[in-house]
Amino acid sequence: NDIISKGFARKVPEYRVAAKSGQLWYIPHHGVYYPKKQDQVVFDCSARFGGTSLKRSITPGAGPDELLISVLSRFGQQPVAFMGDIDAMFHQVRVPDTQRDFLRFFWWPNGNLDGDLAEYQMNVHLFGAVPFLVVQFFFFRQAADDAEGYVGSATAEVLTKIFFYVDDCLRAEESDEEVIQRISGARSACAHGGFNLSKIVSNRRSVLESVPENLRAQGLRALDLSSDFLPVERALGVQ
Fold it and tell me: Where is 171: in which H helix or E strand?
């Protein structure tokens, strides 16, 4: 219901329900429930029918493994670090209207399980449904190019692939002041492209103090920054 109310998906218009044969695809989905994170809907783009799947039918993008090593290596080169996350990143990028019939799914109108199932379609990209790293790089580079004139080249560079792994940003600088400036500029550049960089984490108190509480990672919002303790965090699975 949240996906639909935000316009990320819509009920298929009656005049489009009967699409051409071979020009539509239905995606199964299920809920994933986390004890400490927000629950979410997962669309299974790998589900097969007739020997194929949506994921197998699209030209793959760049492989993530080498990129992961690259991002983590750069992240460890400077002493003052910060991490951030793009909110619902793939839902910010629309799919052309002519291609949305390949992203259909079934759901009950208004979530009423006693009613009849209806056909819906995604209006935006799904994680795993596209060569997602290529899509991400394109839009991030475009946002960086558009914003470079007012945030500077060093900050615009944060939006390029060498500091992002999918929707996670990892960057390190020489000083607290540089990181504070970089976070502010990166958030402005992201916002210019329609993305919201939040869930900020850093290994320095002064950096965390510069970030509004609602933009910090969930586990840091209630943290007493005057104490000597900062929790251990994970950067792409690495402590």
Answer: strand 168-173
- Asked if 127 and 174 touch (Cβ cutoff 8 Å), the reply is no
Tell me the one-letter amino acid at 59.
T
Report the distance separating Cα 32 and Cα 110, nearest Å: 20
Summarize pLDDT for 68-121 with one digit per residue, the tens.
Answer: 888 888 898 999 999 999 988 878 888 899 889 999 999 999 889 999 999 999
Inter-residue long-range contacts of 122-125, CB under 8 Å, 24+ positions, other chains counted: 122/8, 122/9, 122/43, 122/95, 123/7, 123/8, 123/9, 123/10, 123/94, 123/95, 124/8, 124/9, 124/90, 124/91, 124/92, 124/93, 124/94, 124/95, 125/90, 125/91, 125/93, 125/94, 125/95
Q: Which residue has the higher pLDDT, 177 or 125?
A: 177
